[in-house]
Amino acid sequence: MTKDACKQIVLDIIADIAPDEDLSNLKPEVRLRDQMQLDSMDFLDIVMELRKQHGIEVPEADYIHLASLDSCADYLTPKFEALGK
Amino acid sequence: MSFQPARIVITGIGLTAPNGNSLSEFRQNLLAGVAGVEPFDVRYMGRLIAGVCHYDPLRYQTRKGLRVGTRAGSISIYCAHEALKDSGLAFDSVPKDRVGIYLGCTEHGNVETENEIYAISKFNYDTKYWSHYHNPRTVANNPAGEISLALGITGPAYTIGAACAAGNVGLIHAAQMLRLGEVDLAFCGGVSESIHTFGIFAGFKSQGALATHADPKKASRPFDKGRNGIVVSEGGCIYTLERLDDALARGAKIYGEIAGYCVNSDASDYVLPNPGRQAECVRKALVNAKLAAADIHIVNTHATATPQGDIQECEAIRAVFGAGCPETNINNTKSYIGHCMGAAGALELAGNLPSFDDLVVHPTINVDDLDPLCAIDGLVLNQPRKVARVEAILNNSFGMLGINSTLIVKRFVA
């Protein structure tokens, strides 16, 4: 699993969660919340979809790692790899 | 000096019904005999029939709003926007804390709960897959709350559980709140998303009260000998109600005036209607409106096409409206759209209000063989009836646990 592939997985989830948003110009290093309308329930959606679609658990204390696409990739890629993905 | 309550008038209507997404389309189809029942797939039960609304949800909502909210919320938002537009109110200048939202619901939350149980069934019923949206979706005030969010209304916004009498009760409650001075403008009526819960279909089927017919459009047939139960439908109808002085001051179009009402209870059975209490409800509404039975020119019946319920309502109507009411016409709207549950009373009233202007009474359709036990004077069957005058419309809506509601709207005369 590359970090780019991991980012794409997160982007696909966000596309479902925020279907009205244009995601084509998201800056990976900038906080998602600063670039689009995402509230706390939306972040819980990301956590839920990672669990449902990929079997990945994100403990509450680690939610901070989902702030940007880059931080998502840094945090999630090892988790995907641990699952053999 | 006796207390003179403020006069309350209807100034806007927004609706979606299985056969129309605006009052004009709905009315046109009621006069043309166009029913709105169709095949519909129900979880665990397969293909059944239902009344399905085909409004455009994206007219007033984002795709995210639709994903997060409920079907009842979406129907409510659509109807509220349509009512607001129809009212001609300059909403930007309306103090939002003086606006109330009062919506009748038969039930709310079954759809969302069933969906979540189905979703976690795919994960061996592990509740960690249960949605964090479940609670905001299933709280009973959800449909009213979604309107408050959509329109920025900060006054009271809640639903009123009154089974299938709820649409009328939403209007009645709003009129009371306007008279009390709690609000200056009310969005009120009823809403239902019931076709999206298998439970309501299964419950009526177990009760022997779910309609079946080879032709869905002929399935809902109140008063017909061949009737065999209820067609479950979704829908919504929201009115703007104002005190007459406020409506006149802004030159509002006035559909009619709330003349009187009654809500009472059978206190006799969970599901079986009580004709004596229904008649009492109608009589009390007439007294409240200071009208005689003969002053009512249209009675819109609640009849749902169950074998016994229709007979019992006819018994109640016969007891109040008899030979002395030659100008009283009696019809039924469920024959077109099935039973829209919490929206039924509000929708069925709306479909009749244009009669004040066009002097036509829409008929009850699908009556091929009138049940003699339902043969009451004044029934309008299968063809619209042109009448000499329509001064007052009486709308019946009854529900389980024995709740009855009657609402009378009269032609507005300054």
Key terms:
heterodimer, A: 85 residues, mainly alpha, Non-ribosomal Peptide Synthetase Peptidyl Carrier Protein, Chain A, 3 helices, 52% helix, B: 414 residues, alpha/beta, Peroxisomal Thiolase, Chain A, domain 1, 2 domains, ten-stranded mixed sheet, 14 helices
Give a verbal description of the structure:
The complex is a heterodimer of chains A (85) and B (414). Chain A is mostly helical and 85 residues long. Chain A has a single domain (3-82), classed as Non-ribosomal Peptide Synthetase Peptidyl Carrier Protein, Chain A. Chain A contains 3 helices and no strands. In chain A, helix 1 (3-17) crosses helix 2 and helix 1 (3-17) crosses helix 3 (69-82). The longest helix of chain A has 15 residues, at 3-17. Chain A is globular, with a radius of gyration of 12 Å. Chain B is α/β, with parallel strands linked by helices. Chain B has 2 domains: 8-249, Thiolase/Chalcone synthase (Peroxisomal Thiolase, Chain A, domain 1, 3-Layer(aba) Sandwich), CATH 3.40.47.10; 260-410, Thiolase/Chalcone synthase (Peroxisomal Thiolase, Chain A, domain 1, 3-Layer(aba) Sandwich). The longest helix of chain B has 17 residues, at 71-87. The model of chain B has no long low-confidence stretch (mean pLDDT 97). The chains are: A mainly alpha (85), B alpha/beta (414). The A-B interface holds A 16-20, 37, 41, 44-45, 48, 51-52 and B 62-64, 67-68, 123, 128-129, 131-133.
